[in-house]
DNA sequence: GTCCTAAATGAAATCGATATCATTTTTAGT
DNA sequence: ACTAAAAATGATATCGATTTCATTTAGGAC
């Protein structure tokens, strides 16, 4: 280690510039010197110093990803997609786990300002659209997953929340349910808003009156789903089915039901969203909406890197992937 | 953006050196100029350029983590621990998902050579001890989780594999089992080796003959556990319990049993290792050995960063955390 | 006010690679 | 063989911060 380009140059009997050319363009160098240089590089086990390269080129070949909690498989699968796509393009990924704290996320966003990363992908509902737009206008490259932003350049990739939520609730209605609760995530997140919209649309289309008492929220977390379910149980409003804005909260519903002796699906049908791996293993298996997590990660990483390299062939900056309902036992029980 | 230290210096009416001092030592600057500089920094929204800083200081404040598959919760929980500990010390984490490929891991190790990271944590059985020792001897800082390396400086953090495996198998014996299969991971990994050792020790202590036909391997993956179970079923050797070297493979056992109509725990008792979150949700809940994943991540990240900053108060470089058996329904069935 | 020391500040070298520009070497055409 | 064009190579400035070393300013004692 600790060999510099000049050391290699000396050993090969050429200038540093030539070594650099061999290692980069390599077009303007004669075959003979090229071989000499490569031999020296090999013998000295030379590796160009990343920081020097970054300073000169003004690019780090690194992107950052902000997620609220890497342990939740929804996020880790997105990260995997991002990482794989980045690797294929020789980019590295810095992982930023915010522990669901806005403050930490803001701090991580600072990595853009000091050029630690070339771009940033946000997979979180906490940072507001305005803040993201601010960064974008300052000239930083960033994208979001799970929401869309009203902007010409900010990349986004999400799923058709309204449609699949409508389909999920319609499915419950077709099973004979008329009193369907909704447990949402963060009330001001696009994911929550659109999923609620689909829920309302399904009710309306089937002339089922909307009851505010059947709405609650669980912050997209298992514990939140659990608490929301208990609150719903306390209320006067009876319900025979519940649609949760993600699977984590559905797990909370399961826990609350277990404690209270409520049977799924006989007493309560449950449908979640995400198709987390765990949902296929629990009993009863949870009906849920597949979310192409890995694919969304790949999509956004590719587009972001394209944008960083001015390769935006298409003008498109908003991507919506279709997702579909997976019916399992938790809702597969015809009610009369 | 794009403000340099000289711009700040000009605005504050001082030299670049002074600005640098304010932003770093800050001890040798008069209070008055310090305020002037901070005001200018604030007004211009100045952020020191990371690459320039890294080049000069020869440190990136970044560590890399190599894992075989970030989706597996064993790894993502370790990563979370590493990330949190790093964040607290102002270090960033580059995530390297190798997709279980040695070649990718070797490529990622190259990040050490070109100084993209200050240190590296390996949470993988693929890279050999010798390679790790080589890097260490070249002067690079690295550590491993889940194994230990015979070396004076390479950091490691693992659990007491032999003891807890012995306890797990002893538990099965106490439940009345005499024919106990073992499904291991990668045969040349320390995790596998030590867990097998505990298995053998429990058998021996209880005068139960070892039967080679009851040993198989599943590469630490669900699919591997599934296939290994099918192979065991094919053989002549009957068995009433199985100990798997991790939970993923135990999930494979469950799948194979479901397909073949084998009941757990009545026909087959199962004990895994890791206490992945999913094991508490499946039916029957899986008996397993808790692994302090988050804590191991925190431990190694802290020690690694200490080492990078020559803060190795203690001479210790090998850490072993005790882990304990969690008995759930998958093995809680007394056999007669 | 003078002198000496300590504190504060600035000029310039440095980290290691890349890219521009100038120069040398090679090639090709007549 | 001579010249023009093309190819190959080298010298040097540059990226943006930090740090050493020199210099200036301030503070204190007499």
Automatic annotation (TrEMBL), chains A, B:
Keyword DNA-binding: yes
Domain annotation HTH lacI-type: ranges: 4-57
Stored InterPro entries: HTH_LacI (IPR000843), LacI/GalR-like_sensor (IPR046335), Lambda_DNA-bd_dom_sf (IPR010982), Peripla_BP_I (IPR028082), Rhodanese-like_dom (IPR001763)
Entry annotated with the keyword Transcription regulation: yes
Keywords: DNA-binding, Transcription, Transcription regulation
One Pfam assignment: LacI
SMART domains: HTH_LACI (SM00354)
PANTHER family: HTH-TYPE TRANSCRIPTIONAL REGULATOR GALS, LACI-RELATED TRANSCRIPTIONAL REPRESSOR
Protein name: LacI family transcriptional regulator
């Amino acid at each position: 280690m600790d060999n510099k380009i000049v050391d290699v140059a000396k050993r090969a009997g050429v200038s540093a510039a030539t070594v650099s050319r061999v290692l980069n363009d390599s077009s303007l160098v004669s075959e003979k010197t090229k071989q000499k240089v490569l031999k020296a590089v090999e013998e000295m086990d030379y590796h160009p110093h990343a920081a020097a390269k970054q300073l000169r080129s003004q690019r780090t070949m690194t992107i950052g990803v902000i997620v609220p909690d890497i342990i939740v498989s929804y996020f880790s699968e997105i990260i995997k997609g991002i990482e794989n796509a980045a690797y294929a393009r020789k980019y590295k990924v810095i992982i930023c786990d915010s522990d669901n704290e806005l403050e930490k996320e803001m701090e991580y966003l600072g990595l853009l300002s000091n050029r630690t990363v070339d771009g940033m992908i946000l997979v979180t509902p906490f940072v507001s659209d305005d803040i993201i737009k601010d960064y974008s206008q300052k000239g930083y490259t960033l994208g979001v997953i799970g929401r869309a932003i009203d902007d010409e350049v900010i990349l986004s990739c999400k799923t058709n929340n309204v449609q699949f939520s409508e389909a999920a609730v319609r499915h419950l209605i077709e099973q004979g349910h008329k009193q369907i609760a909704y447990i949402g995530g963060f009330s001001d997140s696009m994911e929550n808003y659109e999923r609620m919209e689909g829920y309302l649309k399904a009710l309306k289309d089937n002339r089922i009156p909307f009851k505010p008492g059947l709405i609650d929220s669980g912050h997209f977390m298992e514990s939140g789903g659990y608490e929301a379910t208990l609150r719903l149980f306390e209320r006067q409003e009876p319900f025979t089915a519940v649609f949760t804005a993600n699977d984590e909260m559905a797990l909370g519903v399961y826990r609350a039901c277990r404690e209270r002796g409520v049977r799924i699906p006989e007493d309560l049908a449950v449908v979640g969203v995400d198709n987390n791996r765990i949902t296929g293993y629990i009993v009863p298996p949870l009906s849920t909406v597949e979310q192409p997590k890995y694919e969304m990660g790949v999509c956004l990483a590719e587009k972001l890197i394209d944008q960083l390299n001015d390769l935006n062939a298409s003008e498109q900056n908003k991507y919506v992937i279709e997702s579909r309902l997976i019916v399992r036992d938790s809702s597969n029980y015809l009610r009369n």
